Amino acid sequence: MFFKAKTLELRLTMLMLVGSLLIGGSTFYGFWSLSRIIGIYDVALNEQVSNERAILIVQAGFKEQVQEWKNVLLRGYDQNNLTKYWGKFEAKEMELRELATRLLGEIRQPEAKQLLEDFIKSHSTMGQAYREGLVKFKEAGFEPAAGDKAVKGIDREPTEVLAQAAQAITQSVSDKTSALKSEGTRTITGSVFLSVLSLVAIIALSIWMVRRVVIAPTRHISACLNRFATGDFSPADIPEFDGQLGDVVKDTQKVKDHLGRIIQSVRNSATDLTIASDKFSVIIQSTQKDLDQQQSDIHQVATAMDQMTTVVSQVSGNAERAAEAAREADQATVEGTSVVEQTIQAIGGLARDVEGASDVIQKLEADV
């Protein structure tokens, strides 16, 4: 059912639909039951009232029949009136018999039905008695007292029977109304109870669904995020949740695993970088040492070059002096011996200087 629905939206929609159906069903049951009760009450009321009215009509007709008998006694001394009122008496008798017989087939209330049967029997007996009274009335020379004596009190029983039948129908209508009222009350109470029960069930299911589909996954998501915040990316057992929030929980776990791998990779890279940095520091120190050595060598070379420059300057001076001496030798031949000696000495000094410059150069080559 809606517990197996994939999305939270679909579950809530199906839950609302089921709740609406339950509440609507209980409400419909209440209205249908009330409508049925009202229909039964309407039919019963119309039927019983119609039957009661018919009995009252029979009762009124019976009184008219008795009145026609009195007209016979009072005005029957005249043959025309006798024929007229006795004819009305018999016509009313026939009419009442037919009406009572038809009404007997329509009445369903047992007591009223039995009373109506008793009326039909007593009415038939009464008709025979009235005919016997008519004979005595004629035999007495149309004396009203003689005819009235023959049927005295005979109309009381049918009148009482009809009154009892009408009362039985009235009581039946009252009992039926009370029963229908009680049934209506029970129906309304049952409908309200079912509606409340449906509402409580829907609320309980809603709370259960919210806890299972929303609150539980949300708590696990919050726990995962708290673990992220504290730097804990270790694997954890997470229950399986259905629905969209269940997918969010799974995605959160995937993010945690992915971040864990990234952080582990960063840690490994940091370790490798530390090792490489240590190695690079050693290389830099070695290079600095070599650079210091080269700087020292360069300084020595510069010093040697300065010394060589000095030697070359001395050689150049000696060469100039030798050239000057040669010029003087050429110009002053008279001083030949003396000049030659000086020249030899200058050449000797030049040789020594050249030898010193050669030693400096060899030492510079050795140092480099």
Would you kindly provide a written description of the structure presented here, covering whatever features stand out?
The protein is mostly helical. The protein folds into 2 domains: 2-217, no CATH class; 243-367. The protein has 7 helices and no strands. The protein has helices at residues 8-75, 79-106, 110-139, 144-150, 156-229, 243-331, 336-367. The chain is rod-shaped. The mean pLDDT is 76.
Walk me through the topology.
Blueprint: H1 8-75, H2 79-106, H3 110-139, H4 144-150, H5 156-229, H6 243-331, H7 336-367
Short description:
The chain is mostly helical.
What overall form do the CA principal axes indicate? rod-shaped
Largest sheet: none
| Count of discrete alpha- or pi-helical segments spanning 4 or more residues | 7
- Helix-strand category: mainly alpha
DSSP summary, beta strand count: 0
Overall pLDDT, averaged?
76
How far the N terminus sits from the C terminus, by CA atoms, comes to 94 Å
Q: Unreliable runs, pLDDT <50, ≥5 residues?
A: none
